[in-house]
Amino acid sequence: MRTAAIVPAAGRGERLGPGTPKALRDLGGQPLLVHAVRALSIARSVELVVVAAPRAELAAVRSLLSPAVGDTELLVVGGGRTRQESVSLALAVLPADVDVVLVHDAARPLAPSELVDAVSAAVRAGADAVVPGIPVADTVKQVDTAGRVERTLDRAQLRAVQTPQGFSREVLVAAHQAAADDASDESDAATDDAGLVERIGRTVLVVGGAEEAFKVTRPIDLVLAEAVLARRRAAGVTG
User: Fold this and answer.
1) What's the CATH number where 75 sits?
2) Are 221 and 214 in contact (CB under 8 A)?
3) Domain total of the chain
4) CA torsion sign, 11 to 16 to 19 to 20?
5) What is the rounded (10 degree) CA torsion for 113, 134, 227, 223?
6) What is the residue range of 220's domain?
């Protein structure tokens, strides 16, 4: 049985500014997507990477990623209008012998390969779903629609969730099928796959995350990513 990693990379990422799709933005001379896929391919547990890319750029993305994956098998498929749809399309092409599925954001290009293996191992140990998370440093307040504070949340019980997220294939497929059957409003689409698993009543386990697995969303995040990448290169770290 095998572990596959899905990377939904068909979105444009408007908060990062106009231009090419976010996954193809440059970081240290290579697109974010290349860094993210390389981290997955370096991980010992991952044998197949499936990238859901913009439909007009499939050949270009395949050519771009082929040198980055080494001996890891690569599939590039057309993505959908939403992240959820892109993951579903990638799930549909997985070989029958894949039993553990990781889902990773291309916008988290510097997630350590050790984190990838830790998430995969937790699923192999019997968890239905696994997410890496880090403690929340800021005070978090719940507000109403008018911006009035309703209560202050106990940050000791809060975690900022990252990717890759790991799943039993059976559980993830069931969660996506349930979401597709119930979809009545595009605004109700889940922001991560663990949210879909929660909706069908399955348990999601949180394991320790990694500071370097932060998400590149705004221009300032790219500046931070460049600094982390430069430090890694100076230290000879590749993943």
Assistant:
1) 3.90.550.10
2) yes
3) 1
4) negative
5) 120
6) 2-133+160-235
